[in-house]
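DM from R.C. (forwarded with permission)

"hey, sorry to bug you on a friday — could you get me a structure for this? deadline for the figure draft is monday and I only need the backbone to look sensible"
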Amino acid sequence: MLEQGADVTISLMLDHKVVDRAPENGTLFYQSGRLYYRLYQYARIRQIPVSQDIYAETPRVAPGLVALDDFGVVSPKRLPVTRPNTNVHLFRTDSRQTELAQVGRMIRAMVAKKHADPADDYHYRDFLIMTRHLDAYQTMLAPTFHELEIPYFVDLQRSMADHPLVELINALFDIDAQQYQYRDVMRVLKTELLMPNINGQPMDRQAYRQAVDLTENFILKSGYHGQRWVQREDWQYFQLTEGDAGVETDQNAEISRQINLIHHFVAETLPPFLKNAASTGWQSGRDIAGQLFDKPGRYGPAISLA
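My reply, with the result:
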């Protein structure tokens, strides 16, 4: 961009230009200073004109936050304390859970407060919660903010190895190699990315989970595995024995219906899908993902990528 672009503007967080030598490791603006130095040297070697630096003159934050920033940059002993900092509030809690809940209550209170000028009212989008280690709050964020009815977005990186789509793709490979072993089929079903359609609509998630749980219990009890998954006949959940009244209860009939819904979904969906995938020479997760997203409803009953 420096060589081909007509004009390139780069914004960096720095307190002074770095042109003669790279900054020392450990200095406050080391990363941005090193980038400035490298870009400047790159341009100078290639005789690319460098314009004069422009410094921000008007702070974008409240004076209290500027004072807090100065407190971190300059030795506290050299900073005179003139008046209380009304923009910074400190409080101590006995746990991270209590801390997060207190922050949430403060946000709700500020949003609920109405000002004479509506332009001065706060909105949830105006707030940014920062912490040094976000992982420590990972399990608390959702329940706390859901209880307080605060909409939020979490900038927390997740490993792709833990993503349901990756688990689905790996399980499909294992089903093809191991011929429908119990654990592999359950891995596919529990990702909830492949779900039956009922009357043209994706099956209700809670009803699906119940049906999968009943199916898993039946599999563990019966020992069904392998080609049992792809047989056309219904699985017999309830068998009448000597001494029975000869009538299957409505409850058992409903359980049998849910189990066979999952059984036939697997039997009518996965074999044609895997056969088609193999015929196209699939060798990687990317190949499988391509098959999943390419006309997903054509393999047996419609597949819902939830």
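R.C.: lifesaver. Confidence is low (pLDDT under 50) at residues 297-306.
me: no worries. Strands lie at 194-195, 197-198, 201-202, 304-305.
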